[in-house]
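Allow me, if you will, to draw on your knowledge of protein folds for a short while. I have a record of one protein: its chain in single-letter code and its fold written as discrete structure tokens. Could you please explain, in whatever detail you think fit, how the structure tokens follow from the sequence? The record follows directly beneath this note:
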Amino acid sequence: MTKNARVFDGATAKGTYKGIKLAGVNGLPTSGIGAVTMMITVADSQGQGQLFGRPSASDPSTLLMIYGAGVGGNVSTSSLLAVGDDGSLQLSTETAQNRVIVDITGYYTSTKNGVGAGGLVPMAPTRFVDSRNGTGVPKAQLNGGDSATFQVTGNNGVPAGAAAVAANIIVINQEAKAGWIRATPSGAAKSTGVLNYNSTKGLDTAMSAQVAIGSDGKITLDTASGAGLIDVIVDIQGYFLPANPGGGFTPQAGRLVDTRKNTARIASGATFTVQVGGARDGVPTVEAGLSAAALTFTAVNNSDKDTYAQVYADGAAVPTGSAINSDPTSILTNTIVAPIGANGKIRIRNNGPTAMDYVIDLQGTYNSLPGGPSSTNQTGQRKSATTLPFPITDQTNASVDVGTGNLPGDTTALNLPGCDAEQHDRCRVQLAGDHGREREHDGREPVAVRTRRRRRPDCERGRCGLHGRGGDGVAVQAVRRTGGVHDAGWAPADADSGEHVRDEL
């Protein structure tokens, strides 16, 4: 989305879930939203607490942010969350809050709670902007009301066709004034959603965002009028392509690790791994296509020192970007998108001068189906998999649609008993999958086919293309008729009930 949609601006009660309607609100689609990326701000937070989200009352909740824990004022974060079947979601704060703001910055399409193609290409967190040393922008601090534009595409492996990025934006407050920073596509109207930081001088605030890229391949950062001097850092964690090259995003929930309970505190300079692939029910493995995860990353700092941490794929080189910056005696959260190692793990590195605790919760997973040519140009024959009293042989060209997991097929020759030139039976053949064409056949030339979508029973929630477990079922069905007399075991050609002779590919 090039323009955010504000869906909520109001108070929340203590420990009570607030339903927030999304479908049809401020330009959002009236149906088909499976999950959203959103900016959440707790304005002038009242006490310390956690903010949770869930699609509906029947779904599990996940931690989205912690507010008021050693850091006062406005607290912002970006999060990903599934949307309920009724086009709404629910948020809850542990303490009553006077004002919570929710801006939708993007969405994933779906037929139900499962979502459609995600198109994320994860990458090692890479620094694109650092105003302290002139990386990506001039070497200068930004004053209140200033803006800076930086090039995204063509840098550090982000291709010219990228449509958006998953970014971690870090603000270093240099003048003891509160403010906000906003990321928008270059040349586009300014969005309603902003990322807030508080007035503590020297405080580092890390906030994530998924931001569309301008037509010139750039993103613009602007700041609040009247705010003080700040330095800005931007680390890119991955990019999205406008045409999904494979895979998708699946909302998840649940805690992966809490070092306060599971392990000893993580020493300065130490690293540890966390299993993501297959770690919980519904979380795919790397073998099933898992490529990245959206995580709520919480840093618990009980010391009097500033620290920061990195998160990256286990087995990969240490990246240049960071995941979270932690202030003295604080508990801070940030949403990150982390690539997954070949063993299904991520690695966390404590780069601060003191021991730390970390808590990691799932927001969702990204899958990437195997790449390769759109068609193998391979053909062959196989025996019928049915219990028909006669054989069926066919010759089929087929390729996986990596965007959906569906298997469109194209049958160039299909031999059925009774469909030959001598008998002049008129036959009709259908291949369930995509739309094509259909015509009657007299047996003198190869059968032309029409494809028709058929959903497998286990695809009722629209998730088949997301987990790389295959998409719509593909079936061949044939119907023969002779002069209006229906042979035993055959249905009329115009019945088309989809329950006739089926041969699953």
Q: What stands out?
A: The first strand starts at residue 5 and ends at 12. Residues 111-117, 371-375, 395-505 have pLDDT under 50 and may be disordered. The longest helix spans residues 259-262.
